[in-house]
Design a protein that fits this description.
It is built from six helices and four strands. It has one domain: Cytidine Deaminase, domain 2. Helix 2 runs parallel beside helix 4. Helices cover about 40% and strands about 15% of the residues. The relative contact order is 0.14.
């Protein structure tokens, strides 16, 4: 890892500390263009914003998808204080961002907090294939 990359990761960690100081979970992220310029920064605002999806990585993925061409997004790196969760990883993939550099891994984060107690939802399906395929068929050609 280069000294510039470490500097960007340290900034993400600072943003995480700022989120915590402001009453939100401690996570922060930034996007850096191919020339090394910081494009945008975000903090977690799930508590103060009343939005369970307000993770910084998701906000940045949405920004990249809205503001950057796919080629520019592919040349852009996300630096984030923690490995993106499943929700954010999906959004990052859809945004075409080219690279994610994280400080804490998901496993390291799990070791710093109590075990999760909520079970996931029951997923039931597939069902009604003949009807459900109608609005989809032909869309992706
Ligand atoms: Zn997330």
């Amino acid at each position: 890892m280069t000294s510039d990359e470490e500097r960007f990761l340290r900034r993400a960690i600072e943003l995480a500390a700022e989120a915590r100081e402001g009453g939100d979970p401690p996570f922060g992220s930034l996007l850096v263009g191919p020339d090394g310029a910081v494009l945008v920064e975000e903090r977690n605002t799930t508590v103060t914003g009343g939005d369970i999806t307000a993770h910084p990585e998701l906000k940045l993925a949405r920004w990249a998808a809205r503001e950057l061409s796919p080629d520019a997004a592919a040349a852009t790196s996300m630096y984030t204080s923690c490995q993106p969760c499943g929700m954010c990883a999906g959004a990052i993939e859809r945004s075409f961002l080219g690279r994610v550099v994280f400080a804490l891994s998901g496993e390291q984060l799990a070791g710093l907090k109590p075990p999760a107690t909520a079970a996931g939802p029951l997923l039931e399906g597939p069902a009604l294939y003949a009807e459900a395929r109608v609005p989809v068929e032909g869309y992706y050609v």
